[in-house]
Amino acid sequence: MPETGLLLRLVVILGYWPRALVYHVASKVVLPTKQAIMTEGFTLTEHARYQMRDRAIEPAWVDATLSAPQRLLSLADSYGNTHYLRQISDFGDRWLRVVVNPTVEPQKVVTVFFDRRVK
């Protein structure tokens, strides 16, 4: 079964079993690296890269959210971060939240997650 081989290779590469694979077992997710192509003007933090790997969030989804958000919340938290939200049809129409620190240049993607609170 090719899916099993893919999962075992991912476990060996990552060194752990990502919980997102429970939801995305047969997907072929491109793991973000330090050279991951991002929308111009944005960079990924190590934490954001880790969360993308752990949650099986594809870089293309993050890019689409940053370049054309369906909702944009400026100063959305106590740290002054901007939250970009977009509904991802490839992931069951769940809302992807990309949290960005806008006070640095280039802007840093702090974290990325599917937000169950958004309706």
Estimated radius of gyration: 15 Å
**Poorly predicted ranges (pLDDT <50, ≥5 residues)?**
1-8, 19-35
Number of domains: 1
Number of strands: 5
Helix amount = 25-40%
Shape: globular
Strand order of the largest sheet: 1-5-4-3-2
Distance between the first and last residues' Cα: 37 Å
Biggest beta sheet attributes: 5 strands, mixed
Order of helices and strands: HEHHEEEE
* Proportion of residues in β-strands: 25-35%
Average pLDDT:
79
- Put simply, the count of helices is 3
The SS-based structural class is: alpha+beta
How would you describe the overall organization of this protein?
With 119 residues, this protein is of the alpha+beta class. The protein has one domain (2-115). It is built from three helices and five strands. Strand 2 (71-73) and strand 3 (82-88) form a beta hairpin. The N and C termini lie far apart (37 Å).
Outline the secondary-structure elements.
Blueprint: H1 2-14, E1 42-44, H2 46-55, H3 59-67, E2 71-73, E3 82-88, E4 94-101, E5 107-115
In a few lines, what is going on in this structure?
The protein is 27% helix and 25% strand. It is an alpha+beta fold.
Properties at a glance:
119 residues; disordered N terminus
